Amino acid sequence: MSESSITEKVLMVLWGRAGGRCEYENCNKNLTIDTITKRLRNRGYVAHIYADKQGGPRWDPQKSPKLKKDISNLMLLCDECHRRIDKDEVQEHPAERLIEMKKRHEKWVDSLLNTKKKIGTIPLKYSANIHNDKIQIDDSAVMNAIVEDNNIPKTATPFDLSLQNSEIYDNEDAFWNAEKTNLSRRLNKVLETCPLANNFSICAIAPQPLLIFLGTLLNEKKDVTIYQKHHNSDNWYWDKSKKNDSIDFNIIPPKAKCKSNVAINFSLSANIEEKSIYDSIGNDVAIWTLTIDNPNPNFVTSKNILMEFNAKLVNLLNKLKNEYPNCKEINIFPAVPVSIALEIGRSRIPKSDLPFVLFDRNNQCGGFIEAFKIE
User: Fold this and answer.
1) What's the number of domains the chain is made of?
2) CA 112, CA 104: separation in Å to the nearest integer?
3) pLDDT at 1 over 50
4) pTM of the prediction?
5) DSSP assignment of 268-327, as one string?
6) Which of these, 42, 46, 207, 342, is most buried using a 10 Å CB contact count?
7) Same domain, 284 and 218
8) Does residue 260 or residue 76 have the better pLDDT?
């Protein structure tokens, strides 16, 4: 039990900065309404980050006495999260973690209430099973990426486009059709919910054909910000110090002179040997390679690099359309970061560019398998 008497002024400021919501990451419960009766009710608890009495959670002999009534040391929480940090899981909630939660939540609330900025982006997340792994993306990761990017989300949590609790995996024939159907329907539902929306922000991890397909659904008619999960980190937001990063994308023309069967080898996060493409679709194919020096999964460090890639691929697709008038489709073999996979889809112009036949690297067969076609 707290021994400190917090002034009414401090309490009002704390409630205001928290927006009347629980400040624990990924909770955001409304603390002003009874969830059952829907009547107005104070459901908030004021918790100390550094305990205000000796022996309390996170007591610090230097900081606690100085900060026991200071708003920087107070969090607004729901009952469940209050118990979590002060009783049930104290060791997992050091002061530094709680300070960061408070900082991010209050920054998000301030952004939403700043009338000088335009509230407009629709936060989205999408994940799907990869091999035997169930992939999940925390809501807080999406919202933090958007806020750090000086953008403002329309909703407090992202719309989830994922097929919930799926037990279907990418080595099963039913996987691709189930995921495609779900993606289309869920995105359509978002558009029905927000009919005037034309600005989206997305974090996604899934097999690359599905990311490319999602990119086609969020085509150039939509203003889309794509975020990339950074290696060995839970962060998705772009490092502002690298916003001008650039990279040279190289296009290597084919050795074969086939005029009716074309493939694009995207050797960007890793090298794809041409033999694996021949093994998948035969030797009678013209393979164009889009690559960089020293392919690796961490080369996308800025949105600027995504724009450069998009421009390079659009030019290549136009070139293929002109050079191969008898070609009916383009075979796509991707080894790319997730953000690039989304851009591959967004680069395709519906009803103008050739259909994409998407291939996925399959560990069980040691090569690529055909996933599906995008008409």
Assistant:
1) 3
2) 12
3) no
4) 0.73
5) SSS---HHHHHHHH-S--EEEEEE-SS--TT---SHHHHHHHHHHHHHHHHHHHHH-TT-
6) 342
7) no
8) 76
